[in-house]
Amino acid sequence: MLAYDVHGSGPGLVLLPGVGGTAALTWETLLAELAAEHTVILVDLPGSGRSPLPVGRLDLDTVADQVVATAERAGLGDFTIAGPSLGAVVAIKVAARQPDRVRGLITLSGFALPHTSLWLRLKTWASLLARQDDRLRAFLTSLAFSEDHVAARRPEAAQSLATCLMTAAAGTARQIACALGVDVRGDLSAVTASTLVVAAAGDRFVAPNHSVDLADGLPGARLAAVRGGHAALFEEPDRTLEILTDFLRDLRSSHSGPHDDLLTPATHV
Asked: Binning pLDDT at 50, 70 and 90, where does residue 100 land?
């Protein structure tokens, strides 16, 4: 069973982290506002936070089923699910495998298949991590934040936050390996939940065209953008919260069953 924490009350909202991160830190900037209107379940991926790391490679289908089992254990029958990066991939898997449970799907800097640029960055991360290379902190900082965000901060402060968000947790290496093998293009058409795809215009890790691909493949998805980098939840929390709460309130006011089609077809913003 994956580790989780519960906050707030209302419709269920499952929040996942990306590679190496914990859900609590990933969603720290938005948690209070989201928990004011939802029962928020923060779920850590295998090998991050308190979640145990299984033997062998990480299988996305298995992880998706673990997330659903964790939501059930936390008391949720149906829910909206959201995640950045690899967390977005897991959320897509959950929505595709459990259409009766997933009311809404939100991806942030997600991807269906890593383009060459993302694949190379993941490989570099894995190599630096395996060698415990001192250059890893600087590399993660360049991945996590936009150029403008980094330029406005002292190097040590930026590096410290980046390495907290994208840690060397026990499962990080295997999560990177999992991300390198991602191909969920065949799952996109199976998603029936109302979907919001959020791209970060300044993302130097998962380029925004990954989100465009997702929005094109997910039926009826909305595509929105924020100005920040990969860690847009920290760089652009107000704009990100506005986009998410608008979507969630539409979902909450209009939804009367897990199969309802709540949103108009994809709008690229």
From this structure: very high
The model's confidence at residue 252, banded by pLDDT at 50, 70 and 90, is: confident
Q: What are the structural domains, with CATH classification, of the chain? A: 4-116+173-254 (3.40.50.1820)
Apex 201 CA angle, 196 and 21, nearest 5: 70
Say which DSSP state 105 is in: E
pTM: 0.91
The kind and range of the H/E element at 250 are helix 237-254
The structure tokens listed for 135 are 């250059």
Q: H-type helices in 112-236, by residue range?
A: 116-131, 136-144, 147-151, 155-165, 172-180, 185-188, 208-217, 232-235
Average pLDDT, the chain: 91
Residue among 4, 16, 20, 43 nearest 179 (CA): 20
